[in-house]
């Protein structure tokens, strides 16, 4: 009878060995300093690009709501910009008397 075999490489390094290997091989993370640098870069990118875009979108939406509310308060309505339909009797599409006396 043989005893328990030697530990395999999959067990060596703890439960996160596979994750750290994946990050190192595919994303270029090679150590704690490198991961910290990626974290800082992500925070800077979020604060410089994503957050200002979200704030600008919220401001545009708030301005649209305020303009709509102002138009409702003043009694202004949006007008339909489509051209009016011509009268079929005046354009000759329907036969009949054009003059009514």
Structural class: mainly alpha
**Annotation, overall tally of beta strands:** 0
Low-confidence stretches: none
Give the percentage of residues in beta strands. Answer: under 5%
Distance between the termini: 119 Å
- Described by the principal axes of the CA atoms, the overall outline is elongated
* SSE series: HH
By DSSP (H or I, 4+ residues per run), the number of helices equals 2
Percent of residues in helices comes to 40-55%
Largest sheet: none
Mind explaining what this structure looks like?
- The protein contains 2 helices and no strands.
- With 101 residues, it is mainly α.
- It is elongated and about 100 Å long.
Characteristics of this structure?
single chain, 101 residues, mainly alpha, 2 helices, 0% strand
Strand-helix topology:
Layout lengths: L16 H11 L4 H43 L27
Describe this structure in a few short sentences.
The chain is mainly α and 101 residues long. Helices cover 53% and strands 0% of the residues.
């Amino acid at each position: 009878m043989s005893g328990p075999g030697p530990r395999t490489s999959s067990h060596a390094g703890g439960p996160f060995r596979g994750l750290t290997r994946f990050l190192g091989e595919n994303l270029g993370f090679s150590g704690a300093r490198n991961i910290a640098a990626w974290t800082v870069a992500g925070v800077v990118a979020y604060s410089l690009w994503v957050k200002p875009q979200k704030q600008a979108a919220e401001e545009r939406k708030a301005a649209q709501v305020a303009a709509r509310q102002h138009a409702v308060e003043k009694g202004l309505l949006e007008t339909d910009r489509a051209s009016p339909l011509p009268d079929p009797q005046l354009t000759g599409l329907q036969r009949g008397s054009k003059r009514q006396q």
